[in-house]
Amino acid sequence: MSYIDGFVLAVPTENRQRFIEHAEKADGVFMELGALRVVECWGDDVPRGKVNDFYGAVQAGDDETVVFAWIEWPDKATRDAAMGRMEELMQTDPRMNPEQNPMPFDGMRLIYGGFSPVVELGG
Asked: Does the domain spanning 11-65+73-109 belong to CATH 3.30.70.100?
């Protein structure tokens, strides 16, 4: 069964195109390291909750859009090996170097985690 890394972040709405360009560069690295699929989703129907919601989770401001993303790996071992290379790649690969491909959002508010699927339907 596959392994999933999930991400939720707040991106200044005016940085939409910069975010797409940043993601296209960085996501190529994950594919080269064995990811099966990388999906970046720009929020366009994200409701506000009464108790909690995506906006609160990432402390999004009125001028920010919530982004939901995931990386699908063939297994946890492939993901762990890829993540083990990240420190090196941040120094050697311009796509992952924060000075050469800066994040157009506040990375301190990004939330992420690794998940083992327990139900999978479809293809």
From this structure: yes
